[in-house]
């Protein structure tokens, strides 16, 4: 409980407020005062947060609020009163739906929706951020590039803020830890309110001590199935030895990578054991990965769970023999818990041993080209046939 200490040393304990307030009031308060949010404690790369607009329209419905940083990071803010049972059940899936839909937008799409909500013409998103007083803002071109990159890889901060968040915290974070396809950071924030003298209130947003802050995750295909590993990309702390190894290795691979398909974008650089190739639909991708404990590297094709992913892999399975013949390497077809993968891997005596670095890089470059050549045009055709 907060305590007020008077000039004479007297103390007074504040009591939680009994006053009624609605979600709209809480949403307005946090939107107008994002400095009150404990963003630095969750992930300082999402600070400072600048309010962009409320009720941004998405196919999953309007999100409560969108904020952005001068460096092109995006924050989705949802406010819920947890005395509402429906809010407890729905808010997690809801914010994940918003993140998924946001990741499907281009910068032009997002700019259009921001202009609609704010009534501002031109590059409204950049103009709002540029108008904020900050010393580390980007040029317009750099800002557009960074936001585009955030959209492409789902690098968002998802903030759920509400009163008295206690129930099911462990279950919430365990569930989110399994959502490895977007590189999001998640924060569960309790907004406590206390009665002050003269009818005022003290508002205290805080991260729950009971919750586990879920870091961005990436997905590795291991013999037991999918395993989520922490992705250190974007963190400003000193790089660990493994993060430095991955950053240097992927840079070498990407710089030297030559693909037969000129339309296939190269993956973005990461500091983790995974990089990702975008396919012609944002719900499906090819990943390269390291599994250090098994001394194994490889590639896999996968998609989000759901009807779309099922239909993609059903049609690919119908062409299984031809696909395996064109790949020219052994592959495994795996389906588990509504998720599907097509993968291939190879073991080396030591993944971080410089002796094998060139051999590993050549193997991953070769398997990348094979997977892109075989799958990209097929997925493009299937997506067009499905009208997705």
- Unreliable stretches: 209-238
User: Main sheet?
Assistant: 6 strands, mixed
Number of strands: 15
Mean pLDDT reading: 82
How does the helix and strand content classify structurally? alpha+beta
The radius of gyration is 23 Å
Amino- and carboxy-terminal Cα gap:
52 Å
Strand content: 25-35%
- Shape verdict: elongated
Question: Can you write the helix and strand succession as a string?
Answer: EEHHEEEHHHHEHEEEEHEEEHHEEH
Q: Regarding quaternary structure, how should these chains be classified?
A: single chain
Helical coverage, percent range:
25-40%
Q: Please tally the helical runs, counting DSSP H or I stretches of 4 or more residues.
A: 11
Please give the order of strands in the largest beta sheet. 3-4-5-6-7-8
Could you walk me through the main structural features you see in this protein, from its secondary elements to its overall organization?
There is one protein chain. By secondary structure, the protein is α+β, with helices and mostly antiparallel strands. Helix content is 37%, strand content 26%. It has 11 helices and 15 strands. It has helices at residues 23-32, 39-42, 85-103, 107-118, 124-131, 140-153, 169-177, 241-256, 307-318, 320-327, 357-386; strands spanning 3-5, 11-13, 50-56, 63-68, 74-81, 156-163, 185-195, 201-207, 217-222, 225-230, 274-278, 284-291, 296-303, 332-336, 339-347. It has a 6-stranded mixed beta sheet with strand order 3-4-5-6-7-8, with helices on both faces. The chain has a 5-stranded antiparallel beta sheet with strand order 11-12-13-15-14. The chain has a two-stranded antiparallel ribbon with strand order 1-2. Strand 6, helix 7 (169-177) and strand 7 (185-195) form a beta-alpha-beta unit. The longest helix is centred in the last third of the chain and has 30 residues, at 357-386. Residues 209-238 have low confidence and may be disordered.
């Amino acid at each position: 409980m907060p305590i007020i200490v008077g000039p004479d040393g007297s103390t007074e304990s504040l009591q939680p407020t009994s006053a009624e307030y609605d979600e709209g009031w809480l949403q307005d308060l946090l939107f107008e005062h994002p400095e009150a949010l404990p963003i630095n404690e969750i992930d300082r790369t999402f600070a400072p947060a600048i309010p962009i607009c409320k009720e941004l329209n998405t196919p999953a419905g309007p999100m409560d609020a969108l904020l952005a940083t001068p460096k092109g990071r995006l924050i989705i803010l949802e406010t819920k009163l947890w005395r509402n049972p429906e809010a407890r059940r729905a808010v997690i899936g809801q914010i994940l739906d918003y993140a998924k839909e946001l990741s499907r937008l281009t910068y032009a799409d997002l700019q259009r929706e921001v202009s609609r909500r704010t009534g501002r013409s031109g590059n409204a998103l950049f103009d709002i951020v540029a108008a904020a007083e900050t010393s580390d803002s980007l040029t317009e071109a750099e800002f557009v590039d960074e936001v585009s990159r955030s959209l492409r890889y789902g690098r968002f901060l998802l903030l759920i803020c509400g009163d008295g968040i206690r129930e099911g915290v462990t279950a919430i974070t365990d569930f989110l830890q399994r959502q490895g396809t977007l590189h999001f950071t998640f924060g569960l924030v309790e907004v406590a309110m206390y009665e002050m003298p003269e009818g005022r209130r003290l508002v205290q947003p805080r991260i729950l001590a009971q919750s586990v802050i879920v870091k961005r995750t990436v997905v590795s295909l291991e013999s037991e199935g999918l395993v989520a590993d922490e992705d250190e990309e974007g963190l400003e702390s000193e790089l660990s030895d493994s993060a430095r190894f991955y950053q240097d290795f992927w840079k070498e691979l990407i710089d030297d990578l030559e693909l037969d398909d000129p339309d296939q974008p190269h993956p973005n650089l990461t500091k983790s054991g995974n990089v990702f190739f975008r396919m012609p639909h944002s719900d499906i991708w090819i990943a390269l990965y390291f599994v250090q404990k098994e001394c194994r590297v490889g590639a896999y094709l996968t998609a989000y769970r759901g009807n779309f992913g099922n239909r993609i892999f059903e049609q690919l399975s119908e062409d299984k023999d031809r696909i395996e013949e064109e790949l020219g390497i052994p592959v495994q077809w795996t389906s588990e818990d509504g998720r599907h993968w097509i993968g291939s891997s190879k073991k080396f005596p030591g993944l971080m041993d410089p002796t094998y670095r060139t051999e590993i890089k050549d193997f991953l470059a070769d398997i990348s080209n094979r997977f892109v050549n075989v799958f990209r045009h097929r997925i493009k055709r299937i997506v067009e046939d499905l009208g997705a």
